[in-house]
From TrEMBL:
<feature type="domain" description="Myb-like">
    <location>
        <begin position="173"/>
        <end position="255"/>
    </location>
</feature>
<protein>
    <submittedName>
        <fullName>TTF1 factor</fullName>
    </submittedName>
</protein>
<dbReference type="GO" id="GO:0006363">
    <property type="term" value="P:termination of RNA polymerase I transcription"/>
</dbReference>
<dbReference type="InterPro" id="IPR053078">
    <property type="entry name" value="TTF1-like"/>
</dbReference>
<feature type="domain" description="Myb-like">
    <location>
        <begin position="124"/>
        <end position="172"/>
    </location>
</feature>
<dbReference type="InterPro" id="IPR009057">
    <property type="entry name" value="Homeodomain-like_sf"/>
</dbReference>
<dbReference type="Pfam" id="PF13921">
    <property type="entry name" value="Myb_DNA-bind_6"/>
</dbReference>
<dbReference type="GO" id="GO:0003682">
    <property type="term" value="F:chromatin binding"/>
</dbReference>
<dbReference type="GO" id="GO:0005730">
    <property type="term" value="C:nucleolus"/>
</dbReference>
<dbReference type="InterPro" id="IPR001005">
    <property type="entry name" value="SANT/Myb"/>
</dbReference>
Amino acid sequence: LDLDAARQELEEFIPHVRNISDSSIRKMAGRDLVRFKEFKFEGIAVKFGRFSQKENNQIRKNIQEFLLITGIDSAEKLLFTSRYPEDKETINHLKTQHHFCEKLSEGIPRPWRLIYYRARKIFDPNNYKGRYSKEEKEKLKKYHTLHGNDWKKISELMSRSNLSVAMKYSEIKSDVNYGPWSKEETQKLMHAVEEVIRKRMEKEDANSLSSSEKSRREISIDRETLYQKLPWTEIEAKVGTRYWRQCKQKWTAILTTKMNKGQQLYKGTKGLQAKISLIKRLYEMKVEDANEVNWEELSNTIGDVPRAYVQAKFYKLKVCCVPLWQKKTFSEIVDYLFEKKLPELEEQL
């Protein structure tokens, strides 16, 4: 395999491909490149970000069909083969024989690796076990003392997913502060974000760009770089006294204040108007899934704010105003807000 040629071909579909390791490029060249070209021929773009309900359903369909073809009796055995050492050899042989990679990714315009991770999250029986009990939290602390950040080992001991135990530990470790942010903590957060952004930008191969292109590139990525896809667990470690979700929420609040020169966008009459505008715009979009919403564009409905700010306001609206929202689709939630909540807000205004 000519790695440089493969990387160049993949760059058409994955802009950040230059930062991907050689071993990952080899896998993507085998698993993804032909699929990406086929999707391009059909006029379908490669996607990233949150999976839509339609994509989740396609993953379930692909898994179910593969189980029927092979006779493997559960998705857990298929996706977590190491949990079944006595069946491991047979399952791996069936996966190879019946082209598991191709079957799993069928009809989904995303990198295979991301589809695989999503499938594991959907079908892991350890992934949806509700809140942690007090006893589980104590066990988690004890296992972390024994095994450090070996989340795979800890997840097996606790029968929870890797991600679940890692995220929960970040919330309960003893030095996390839950009160108002101090000036020192805020400074630590800002320095931590600056450090990870600077490191990311240094990795980019700016040498291949002319000075004018380089200047345009820095301007065009500046705002996006400030709040999208930041490594929050790394930032959490640098701050030291807050867990990752607190860091993300605080950074969004800092950006929102700076971008609006200290104005309060979501208070009083302005707050009511923002809610009304947000509901109306979402209703006008007529989309079936939150993943189809252009949150960046929607942020202009409220003001000059990060997309995370708008997403947080929508989340609060649905939780506070829509009964049984967990059981409703995205479009049903928006319809309810438009039909039931909007008249109330307009009356208040």
